[in-house]
Structures are given as C-alpha cells and as structure tokens.
## 1
Amino acid sequence: MPHVTQPEIAAWCADYLRRTLKLPDGPIDVNAEFPSLGLDSAESVFLVSAIEDWLGLELASDTALEHPTIAQLANFIADRLDTLTLRT
C-alpha cells in the first residue's frame, strides 16, 4: 500500500473530478460539497472505486457520501492509511 499524504489524496481527487466531470482547468474548492461540483451519488461510487484501485484500499461504497468534500474525503482516507500502516 503506497504512502500518500492528505494533500496528495486531495490533489488526486481534484484531478479525477476535473477529468470525470469535465470541470474547467484551475483550482477546485476542496471544501465544496460533491453535488455542487456536479458529482451525483452514482458517480461517487465510481470515485470511491477509483480510489480503491489507486491505493489498494477497501472502502465502503458510500464513503464519498459520508465525507462529502474533497478535504473531508482526503482526511478520512489519509487517516485510514495511517491506521493501516500502524498495524503492519
């Protein structure tokens, strides 16, 4: 499992959303809720699946709904990775 930081996860999520939702280039507000960026519940499952593939991490399918901003999601995943790293 790769060691990635919260800012790296946030940047990856922003890039994913920019490509997937065809958002304009430029900064994305990491504190904006996903629906305001155009991400619906079905697409949030794809986001979580892409994160799982990227990090080799198992997450609940509703993780993006439970952590509805890039910042919240990145914090949750970084904490989860840190916890898993401590166990190994």
Note: The helical segments are 6-20, 34-37, 41-55, 63-66, 70-87.
## 2
Amino acid sequence: MARCSKCKTEAESLYWLDSMRSSLCQSCLIEHYEKKVKRTIIKYRMLSDVKNLGVAVSGGKDSMALVRSLLNIFPSLNFTVIHLNLGIPEYSDACQALVQKFCQENSIECITYDLKKVEGYSIGDFATSKLGRRICGICGVVKRYLINKVALENGLDAVATGHNLDDTVELLFNQYMSGALGDLVRNKPVLPSTHPKIVKKIKPLVEVTEQENLYYVLSTHTGYVDRECPLVKGSRMLKRKKLLLRIEEEIPNFKYLLFKSHVKRFLPILEKHFEAPAIRECERCGMPSMNSVCSYCKLVSKLRLSSPVSFSSH
C-alpha cells in the first residue's frame, strides 16, 4: 500500500492533489482542507461584524463543501442556507431535495426560493429564447439578484458563496482579456456592502480548487448532485477552464499565482484609480443598479416579450 505524504502512514486509498503534487490519506485531506478554508476566512476577515450569515447552497460539490466545512470549522456558527430552485428539468428538483435533506439532518434553517412559483418563469425559459446562447451569464445575473434580495428580506448581513479558485481565475482570465475594469475591481474575496440594499458577499473557498472540494465532500461523506447543469454544455466558461488546466500542467500553481497577483498587486491599483459608477435604485424594482433599470429587470422584460408567461410584480 502507498503512504500518505503528510503522516507517512499506509492507506488503501489516497487523494492526489495537483496543487501540492502529493497524496494525502482521508484524515490528512480533511485536516488540510479545513485549515486552508479557516485560514482564508481569517486572513480576509470574512466574518468580521457578521451576526446573521447566509450561505448560498446549490447542491453541487462546491457549495456542499462550503456548508460542510463551515459546520466542522465553526460548530457554534449559526447560519441560514439559501437555495434557489431554478426550474431546470430533471436537475433543480434533485438539487432542492438534497439541500433540504442535508439541512434537516444538520438542524440548519433553509430558505428555498422557487423561481417558477414566485417569479413565474424558470431559467429554462431563457434557454429556449433568443438569449439562450448566453445562458450561463443570464443565470449568474438572476442568481446574484435573487440571493441578494432573499438575504436582504431575511435580515442577513452577509452571504457566503461556493466560488472556488478555478471559478475566480476563469473570471479573472476573461475580465483581463476583455479589459472589464469594473468587473475586475469587484472580483475579490470579500465584496463589501456599498448600498443599504446590497448585502456583503464572501468567498471562503476562493483559495481552494474544484479538485479539493470534490475530495473533501467524498472524504466527509457529504452528499452532492454529481452531474453538471444540463444547460452549461458548450459554454465558453467551460472552454476557458479547460485552457487554464492545460496552462496549469505546464506552469504548476498558475491559477493560484494569477489570483494572488490580482489581489496583492493589481487590485490595489485598480481600486485607487478606477472610479466606481454611482449606485442608484432601479425604477422598476427598487433594487440597487448602476443604470435607471437594473440588469435583472432588463432580462425579465426581454423574456416577457418572447414568452406568454405571466410575471409577478416585484
């Protein structure tokens, strides 16, 4: 049998971590992961002044790793899970059932927001419209808007999301290529509130990889939905992630190095010289926006024009 690179004990199964170029046994993998997440939370002071925390949980490996690690690292931390049912056939209901079961077993309050029942449409409606080619971007706009809205309405002063290192670097890669300065300034481990209706966002998993998240849920026997969203096939986001993996093979720790360069070197300069646009309130829904009509309301209005669905008023 092979030996664990850390404790040197023999084990029938080991987890090979690309980021460490070494193999860990189950107990060492859990210890390594939880220390890394705890260090990230403390380093960026993510829970500073946070009394009522919300945790966005989709049911995938990343968000399930997030909620499990918070339970294990901070057993006295009280938080509320926010789950969005996006109405994706043969996928969303499975995600909701898994998240609700986990919360029930661990005595966690769970707020489930059913997009179809409350808003009158599903993400699938966008996929079949003229906007279908940009479905991942559209889904992101909808989720950001609704998670913030749910957190605000339930008195939560911060929301933790399961964005990992791979997610963050893929975004950075795209933002630097397109010169999206406004988005680059907001791409950070902690996004503070800049308006009374904007809830603080934190990313406790920002320095761990998708691989580490997968191994952690497997090691802790945490259930998760083991399949991709059916709408993500062929997306440019997946293609960029594959490209970054190929770069990582040639340049070890490339993703982490790019992330650290952004946070330590480029972000301070961008924050100093980039003037963020003034935030106003959307004239349709009253939520914060950089324009007279927010991105969410613009999307919904386009869907209304191409669909007979009857939408509820905000």
Note: DSSP finds twelve helices and twelve strands in the chain.
